[in-house]
UniProtKB/TrEMBL annotation:
Domain Ribosome recycling factor: from-to ranges: 23-185
InterPro entries recorded: Ribosome_recyc_fac, Ribosome_recyc_fac_dom, RRF_sf
SUPFAM superfamilies: Ribosome recycling factor, RRF
First and last residue of the signal peptide: none
One Pfam family, short name: RRF
Name used for this protein in its record: Ribosome-recycling factor
Annotated localization: Cytoplasm
The keyword Protein biosynthesis is assigned to this record: yes
Swiss-Prot/TrEMBL GO biological process terms: cytoplasmic translational termination
GO cellular component: cytosol
GO molecular function, one term: ribosomal large subunit binding
Function: Responsible for the release of ribosomes from messenger RNA at the termination of protein biosynthesis. May increase the efficiency of translation by recycling ribosomes from one round of translation to another.
Amino acid sequence: MSDEIEIDLDDLSRRMEGAMSSLKTEFASLRTGRASGSMLDPIMVDAYGSSTPINQVGTVNVPEPRMVTINVWDKGLVGKVEKAIRESGLGINPQLNGTIIMLPIPELNEERRRELTKVAASYAEHARVSVRNVRRDGMDQIKKAKAAGMSEDDQKLWEGEVQETTDKYIKMVDAALENKQAEIMQV
């Protein structure tokens, strides 16, 4: 009977991988002093009666290392896009040139770099919590399987597998955080 009881490690790994990809997306939105189109991803514009991402109302380009441009397709939305960027908290002052909005990326000062490393650390902690929640779900599956007749040896084996997978993803989160903090602090 214990041969029929299986814990879906692939599902747990897939869910932990989801936490990692979410972390990478959040890290991409952090400004590091270099221009990146992804830094505008979290900004929504009130367009056509609904909140719309900036990349769906215009073309986002990075022509220079310290410049992002947005070529807004609808002239009527230029003001709304500019307002959304100003209110986003990115600390960027948009400059208008017809339907093109230019975003010069200023140098980060030491204080702002430290703040960004703290934000990155909080993103990483959220990812760790997500990974641990997936681990807890896996351990709950093992407890249910033990109640359904899994042997104690199989229980220990599966618990070890789940813990090993969890440790692997926690190390990946820590490594990603370390890289991002080094990138932020780089002058």
